[in-house]
Design a protein that fits this description.
The protein has three helices and no strands. The protein is mostly helical.
Length: about 110
C-alpha cells in the first residue's frame, strides 16, 4: 500500500510472452519425441525382420541336424551289425591296410 501512494503502480508480468515460449518449447520437445519414436519404430521393425530371418535359418539348421542324425543312426546300426557278425578278419585287414599306408608314406617321405 505504501508504494501505491508513492506513484508505484503494480504491473504483473506479461503471461502472453511466457505462454508462447512454453508452447514453443513444448512443440520442439514434441518434435524431438516424434523423431525418437519414429527411430524406435524403425529399429523395432528391423529387429523383427532379423528375428524372422534367424528363425528361418535355425529351422533349416534343425531340419539338417535331424536328417544327419537319422543318417548317422543308420550308419551306426550297420557298423554294429557288422561288428556282431563273425567277420573278425575285417580288423586284421584294417590293421594290414594301415601298416601298408604308413610304410608307403615312409617310403614317399624318405625319397622325396
Amino acid at each position: 500500500m505504501r508504494r501505491a501512494k508513492d506513484g508505484y503502480a503494480y504491473q504483473p508480468i506479461p503471461r502472453v510472452a511466457t505462454e508462447d515460449a512454453v508452447a514453443h518449447e513444448n512443440d520442439q520437445m514434441a518434435e524431438e519425441l516424434s523423431g525418437k519414436i519414429s527411430t524406435l519404430k524403425h529399429m523395432s521393425i528391423e529387429i523383427g525382420n532379423e528375428v524372422r530371418y534367424q528363425d528361418k535359418i535355425l529351422r533349416g539348421l534343425d531340419d539338417d541336424v535331424d536328417r544327419s542324425s537319422g543318417f548317422l543312426g543308420k550308419t551306426m546300426g550297420r557298423v554294429l551289425r557288422l561288428g556282431k557278425g563273425n567277420h573278425n578278419y575285417y580288423v586284421f585287414y584294417l590293421f594290414l591296410f594301415s601298416i601298408f599306408v604308413f610304410f608307403l608314406l615312409y617310403i614317399v617321405l624318405k625319397f622325396r
